[in-house]
């Protein structure tokens, strides 16, 4: 079994919920050419037009409100500086992903790595169910998300009460946070970790909170509402 959980595991449900400020990532379409209003000579315009902007199109590590750029790049020196920053972020993300992969391989039976997207996918098993869990690695943050239910599985007659129970759980539980993602039409239990000062002990606490969140959702939210539970993990979705 992969990442099995049992009764009594997880954070103390009676502990006060911490204040958690979550950061969402947003991709920004990168401009493919310089702003010619910033170019004062024909030579500068020609040099600028030869710059390769496709590099930016393939990197998706910009997070928070800090972007790698806020306007078209007009000089080669500026482009070099931005590329250096991006390369350093990629290097740090690769190192962190290797650390987390090594930690997880000793604790789960199945693990899948997406090196291009800096993601790790694993199944977490509870009872006879398996749940898709994704770790997204970024230069400043690690995002852990586990899909516990598809929204289409929830009957309209219990939808309001189920959502209310999710909000109460977010208030009462320590280090457990539920969310509804309209893009993927699913309910998730998630945790975010800042990379600065991150150690494996801190990661283990957050990861175990995800496991507890799965058990709590099944036992204390879905089943009391007579909501049938299904596995969300699909082995065909594992990265190759």
Question: How do the strands line up in the largest sheet?
Answer: 1-2-3-4-6-5
Helix content: 25-40%
Structural class assignment? alpha+beta
Order of helices and strands: HHHEEEEHEEH
Summarize the structure.
The chain has helices spanning 42-49, 54-57, 76-105, 156-172, 200-222, and strands spanning 112-114, 119-126, 129-137, 141-150, 177-181, 186-194.
Helix and strand layout, with pairings?
Layout: H1 42-49, H2 54-57, H3 76-105, E1 112-114, E2 119-126, E3 129-137, E4 141-150, H4 156-172, E5 177-181, E6 186-194, H5 200-222
Antiparallel strand pairs: 1-2, 2-3, 3-4, 4-6, 5-6
List keywords for this structure.
alpha+beta; single chain; 240 residues; six-stranded antiparallel β-sheet; 5 helices; Yope Regulator, Chain: A
Characterization of the model:
- The protein is built from five helices and six strands.
- It has about 240 residues and is of the alpha+beta class.
- It folds into two domains: about 35-95, no CATH class; about 110-235, Yope Regulator, Chain: A.
- Strands 1-2-3-4-6-5 form a six-stranded antiparallel sheet.
- Strand 3 and strand 4 form a beta hairpin.
- Mean pLDDT is about 75; it is low at about 10-50 and about 50-65.
